[in-house]
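Fig. S4 source data, part A: sequence.
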Amino acid sequence: MTYYPSSILDLINKISKLPGIGEKTAERLTLHILRSPRKDAQELAQSIVKVKDTVRLCKKCYGLSDSDLCKICGDSTRDASILCVVEQPADMVAVEKSGAFRGMYHILSGALSPMNGIGPDDIRINELISKIEGRQVNEVVLATGTNVEGEATAVYIAQCLEKYPVKVTRIASGVPMGGDLKYVDQVTLKKAMETRHGV
């Protein structure tokens, strides 16, 4: 790529550092930016800087917000007696997009992973327990990942909450809608059989 000017190479290099973007995609995006009107490039740059300057963590759920409280925590129509625990802000967005949940959230900012040196004090479990102690929560829905770390985190949190008068539930997992059984892995199929319910 030495045939590009150094300014273009620099932008390709910076864009290629974004997750999921390889060198070819970074090159394509760089050339697109170069062909776009200057105004579009300036707006893109300003949006990036604005995100870095204004986005912070919500003081209640630890989701992403432009103010002290995110839109969900500031919504008085939400059911504050149900708390959904997720690992990351993107997980909260995924649950919200489903339209199946109208309660509040608690974002852990990670999952337990002893192999990577991430223990209970490295994620927001203590803050979750403080919420349970400090307000009327009837149910905690554990919506952590279904990988080893997510399952371990859910089990650990459930054990921590045993002494509190709160119902602890776990999101169901198993065969996806429209999924063909012969293509479903054995662990997923086993989980689906274990969590089967009446029709």
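Fig. S4 source data, part B ends here. The helical segments are 6-15, 23-35, 38-54, 89-98, 125-134, 148-160, 186-194.
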